[in-house]
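SEVERITY: medium
COMPONENT: batch folding queue
REPORTER: lab tech (J.R.)

DESCRIPTION
The queue accepted two submissions in a row. Attaching both inputs and their returned structure tokens so the on-call engineer can compare them side by side.

ATTACHMENT 1
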Amino acid sequence: MRKLHPVGLAVLVTAAVASLSACDRPEELQLPTDADLVGLYGEGPTVSLNGNVVDVEVYQAADQLRRGGETWAKVGPFIYLFSPQTQEVFESWSGVGGVRVTTADGRGRMIARAMLPRGTLNGLTWPRAITLVGKARLEGTRRPSYILDLIEYGEETADFEYSTQYVKGGS
């Protein structure tokens, strides 16, 4: 076995400590700018950063609420929350702690709100969530069970609250 020279050993230990301390450094957390958020969810929603939470505010038409009642009041936030855009937010900006979607009526009153904290969904669960949204959007009028499936998934997965004005019993 070959012996290390004391100077060589010191260099080796110094290099090992330097590489370990580089591994201990937390990654620089990135947050989106206002410009990054403009149009991210399309033209309708207003998107902003509140601390480390991306807030999405969506107007929900009175006609929708009249036709769909409580069901459409409940599903509103989940349509946006479990979207490819939300997945992109988490993948693109490591400093985002959550995405919160609030639906509001024509007077600006909250109908429903849901928040998805970072790490709640992963590479295996995102596809299911996005598929549920797709089915609810494309076929929910003909098959309301798709909307009910999305609501159930949202209530199991996200933090949520409903206005008592639109949903009996609220949260």
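ATTACHMENT 2
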Amino acid sequence: MAAHWGEIERGKNYEIMKPVKGLPQCSSVNEKFIWNEDDSIYGIDIPAWKQFMYEVDCNYEDCEEYCKDKYGGAYVKGVNKNVCYSYEILQGICVVIKYDPLKDDYVFHGGCYPENNTYRMVPGILGEEVTFNNVKIEIRELSDPIVQVGEWTDYGYNLGHYWRYVSFVLKFLLLAALGLLGYVCYDIYITREKFKGAPNLIGGEEDRGMPGGLGM
């Protein structure tokens, strides 16, 4: 995946957009793939899916269940070995770029996900057809508050993970409100305790009508 950028005031005109700098060379450039002349050779390698193979020691009768339960995969009987195949499929892409004001350029900084990954994979489900129509693609600037929180908490995000940030803020506000409520209740309690020991300003029966009394 390659990326270009342009100022919003100029509209969505690809011809005048500038490429994001600092992207690595695509790994398949030198392999036997069709590569159009106008295609950028610099970008991020993102697999649509990954396959994993595990050799297993199981009896023929229970190999299918064993593969399904342990790896979420499918069993294939080989000539001299039993093999399980499982898959991961692409769920999201998230890239962080950094603006360079001196050169007026955006520079590739890495991925949004843990360990600086630029994509997120999830286990495939046997028998489920995958169209990749719901793959979310995000490009975020390094100064983005969500990126900062993601680095601070080391959870990454797919925003999906955005809601983790919102949840963090809401929890902070809730704790602050509870703290303020506790302070107010404590202040009321202390005030009432002070007045418990105060003298009664209303005179007794013997004081009513007497000079210096507080009769009412």
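NOTES FROM REPORTER
Helices lie at 63-71, 145-153, 161-196.
No errors were logged for either attachment.
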